[in-house]
Amino acid sequence: PRSNWLVGLDFGLLQLPPFDANNKAIFAFNLSALFNDPELYGLRIEVNGDKIPPLKGLQFEILYKKINDSIGQYHIELILPDIMRYIELGAASLVLPEIVVDVYTNGDFKVDFGFPYNFDFKRSFSITVIILGVPVLGSGGFYFGKLSGPTAPPQVPVTTKGTFNPVMVFGLGLQIGVGKYIVKGPLTARFSLTIVGMIEGIIATFNPDNALAEGGKNIDKSNYFYIRGALGIVGILEGVV
User: Tens digit of pLDDT for each residue in 113-126?
Assistant: First the structure.
């Protein structure tokens, strides 16, 4: 009932052979757009195949979402083209991270440089160096941001007795071991055996309402902390054509 216009667009240019497993056509250039007034507006651009070599692998998305009547969120995702993201430097190989930026109209923000959600380091920064004939792999990603009550993650308690502001969020994930990422034409593969460490946290300041003051004295502010982490050994072998 809150929606007005709803318009969607899915546009493909320069069809690539063959069809995928679902018999759906694949295109060198894809553009998708959504206009759902006043809740959601989005645009996504993706480049596949070798027909546009300088832009192959590019993925860009910008999305606006209404959080409430006074706050909106701009969400931006960027994956650089393969020619820029995968870099060979002699005995070393670099993979640049995916970049995600969230900016809110109340001044809140969150920046993500390849944080490995669910221990998936494919979106992270990686470096592989050949040492004594063994490919040594290191990967990592992080995020940080300043949020507040309406934009805070679900781990922050919900209360009617005050507000949480600011809400500082952060995360860091690292892995080191042996392994390598391979991108050769239509083949993408990786193998690795690594030690993995990850930590995420929230530091939020609780501001009580003045109505909670007792005996004419204001209640002091307090801090809320949330920390979680993991440490383990992970082995991966996969390939995609």
Answer: 999 998 888 899 99
Partners of 104 in the β-ladder: 73
Please name the residues in contact with 115: beta carbons below 8 A apart, sequence gap of 6 or more: 123, 124, 141, 142, 143, 171, 172, 173
Q: Copy the structure tokens of residue 228.
A: 């979680």
Within 13 Å, how many C-alpha atoms sit on residue 87's CB side?
Answer: 11
- Provide the pairing of β-strand 59-66 with 162-184: unpaired
Measured CA to CA, the distance from residue 209 to residue 218 in angstroms comes to: 9
Rg (CA), the chain: 22
Question: If DSSP codes are grouped into helix, strand and coil, which group holds residue 23?
Answer: coil
Average pLDDT, rounded, for the chain: 88
Using the predicted structure, report yes or no on whether residue 25 has a pLDDT greater than 80.
Answer: no
Amino acid at the residue 55: L
Residue at 33: amino acid letter: A
Give the dihedral sign, CA 19/22/23/27.
Answer: negative
CB atoms within 10 A of CB 179: 23
The CA-atom distances, in angstroms, between 42 and each of 1, 20, 32, 63, 223 are: 20, 25, 8, 4, 36
Any bridge partners for residue 233, and if so which? 195
* Angle subtended at Cα 183 by Cα 88 and Cα 126, rounded to the nearest 5 degrees: 55
CA distance 68 to 75: 16
Q: Give the E-state strand segments of 82-156 in sequence order.
A: 86-89, 92-95, 99-104, 109-113, 125-131, 134-147
pLDDT digits (tens, 9 = 90+) for 146-157: 999 889 999 998
CA 239 – CA 241 distance, rounded (Å): 7
